[in-house]
Amino acid sequence: MTRILITGAAGQIGTELTIALRKKYGAKNVLATDIKEPKDSPVTDGAFELLDALDAKQMCKYIRDYKINHIYHLSAMLSATAEQYPRKGWDLNMLSLLNVLELSREEGIKRVFWPSSIAVFGKGAKKVKCEQYEVQKPATVYGISKSAGELWCNYYFEKYGIDVRSLRYPGLISYKTLPGGGTTDYAVDIFFKAVAERKYTCYLKEGTRLPMMYMDDAIRATLELMEANKNKLSVRTSYNLSGVDFTPAALAASIRERIGEFEMSYAPDFRQAIAESWPGSIDDYYAQKEWNWKPKYNLERITKEMLTEVSSQRVNEYYL
Ligand SMILES: NC(=O)c1ccc[n+]([C@@H]2O[C@H](COP(=O)([O-])OP(=O)(O)OC[C@H]3O[C@@H](n4cnc5c(N)ncnc54)[C@H](O)[C@@H]3O)[C@@H](O)[C@H]2O)c1
């Protein structure tokens, strides 16, 4: 029987992944954990425990108490925040992953999921359709931690046979939980401002193309990778994963098709340099070939669904 522990479960991805995993494996088989207890979150509807992912002893206790055999390790400091707190970001992202990998080895965990990011790419990597094995020269602390993390995952697979699986998520767009300090957060914020104020000031330049994905696609990709036949997976660092790619100007135009008076202005800040260091689009040949990955959401469908779902109640939550 699959018994799952999720770290960082109260975050943007964790909230929706917890719901999906409970639906699939049964609520009693999924333990959600986070360093803080979220308010009014579906995550606390089932088993929930406070856990600092840096506390290996406590993590080990939960693995034993709940007879855990699969781990989804999501807690991390994201790109924009980690540029403000480089050492803290490195410590959280690296040491928590090493806790998970080492405990997986010691406690016989059968499968581990850990997300990487398009941030592993930097100078020298192709901007258009960046391939799986492009050079990795990340320009951010976050990217360095993801690049090193990928190698640690591969190491534990090669050396100890731990079945670690990973995806290089692009920027994720969702409405259930707000994003937590990434460079692509504008692509969520914009919908709340569009509904509430009919205008938005973007911290990236209008032509900054970045790879993005709707959360439903990201959750489905995660479940599909975790269920894929082990023998078909050749990538044990992390799979390139593609959804859509667009610029702030294209997103604004897409919103304007539904909210005619929507106005966009631009005031680039430090996140512009981070965004410029990343590819604009991703080639996910191996994900397509080895576990049949195919996204379902294009820009038009994302815009339609986000504007429908960002109800006035959610707008109020956003401004609280
Ligand atoms: N959201 C994206 O666009 C995106 C893109 C690429 C990769 N990722 C990766 O996906 C994972 C999840 O991202 P997210 O967007 O849900 O992040 P998030 O910031 O929304 O959530 C992270 C969660 O981790 C928790 N946390 C922080 N410190 C902790 C600690 N010491 N112990 C336990 N929990 C702690 C936070 O309370 C938060 O609930 C991260 O590894 C991130 O790097 C996210």
Write a concise synopsis of the structure shown.
The protein has helices at residues 12-25, 56-65, 79-84, 86-107, 141-160, 186-197, 215-227, 248-256, 271-276, 285-291, 299-309, 312-319, and strands at residues 4-7, 30-34, 48-50, 70-73, 111-113, 116-117, 164-165, 167-169, 171-173, 199-202, 210-214, 239-240, 244-246, 263-266. It has 320 residues and is of the alpha/beta class. It folds into two domains: 4-126 and 137-168, Rossmann fold, CATH 3.40.50.720; 171-213 and 242-319, NAD(P)-binding Rossmann-like Domain (Rossmann fold), CATH 3.40.50.720.
Which labels suit this protein?
single chain, 320 residues, Rossmann fold, 6-stranded parallel sheet, 3-stranded parallel sheet, binds nicotinamide-adenine-dinucleotide
